Amino acid sequence: MVRWLIVVFLALMFINGLAPLLRRLGLGRLPGDFEFRLFGRQWSVPLASTVLLSLLLSWLVRWL
Which residues cross the membrane (predicted)? Predict the structure, then answer.
């Protein structure tokens, strides 16, 4: 269980570090990606971008 928590934490840190690059590529601004302000902080829920990246990675893994 602890290993999974560490993996999820590292994955979130990695994705957070790549967020500016992905935003410049247009991910995070697709229809279905939600942004809202709550408690004085900007929150982002990139549903459409997550589905798109999942499909691309799935296709890439199957192709290789």
Answer: 43-61
What's the structural domain count of the chain?
1
Coil/strand/helix, residue 39: coil
The angle subtended at Cα 23 by Cα 3 and Cα 50, nearest 5°, is 50
pTM to 2 decimals?
A: 0.64
Structural domain for 52, as ranges: 2-63
Contact call for residues 19 and 33 (beta carbons, < 8 A) = no
Strand partners, 46: 33
pLDDT tens for 54-63 read 898 899 999 9
Backbone angles phi, psi at 58, to 5 degrees: -65, -45
In tens, the pLDDT along 10-22 reads 887 887 788 788 8
